[in-house]
Amino acid sequence: xxxxxxxxxxxxxxxxxxxxxxxxxxxxxxxxxxxxxxxxxxxxxxxxxxxxxxxxxxxxxxxxxxxxxxxxxxxxxxxxxxxxxxxxxxxxxxxxxxxxxxxxxxxxxxxxxxxxxxxxxxxxxxxxxxxxxxxxxxxxxxxxxxxxxxxxxxxxxxxxxxxxxxxxxxxxxx
Length: 174
Description:
Blueprint: E1 4-5, E2 9-15, E3 26-32, E4 35-45, E5 48-54, E6 59-68, E7 74-85, E8 90-92, E9 98-99, E10 103-112, E11 117-122, E12 127-134, E13 140-146, E14 153-161, E15 166-173
Parallel strand pairs: 1-7, 9-15
Antiparallel strand pairs: 2-5, 3-4, 3-6, 4-5, 6-7, 8-10, 10-13, 11-14, 12-13, 14-15
């Protein structure tokens, strides 16, 4: 399974060989930092399991499949990093999102689904992102540099997440 979701609703197929004959049923879990969160599983065929569920956190996860073998032992298989689930990506500029020309301004952007960002950029010449991070409150903190010659007006701050989702907030160069 290698789906990537821009949602926390999960629905995917696991395919493998040798799923039959099985003495006991299958159990499928999402591994969240060592905690195995159960998912619902339906046997589709002797090579395919259909899995559904909900990811209560954002990120990339291992999927663990457990079953009872014919000899009564419990067996396990792990698909490492094969599922990514994210809430929709949104980003909102602070109430007073002004970047004065000739200075660097740090702004805290709120939003949702901000885990696993790979890029933060700002539009227009003379304006750039010096640094960015996610703080302990889940806000995106961005240091934006506006040169003394940057044109006054609105700029788009675009964030990109590892799964390719993007979101845009607007700031003002003053």
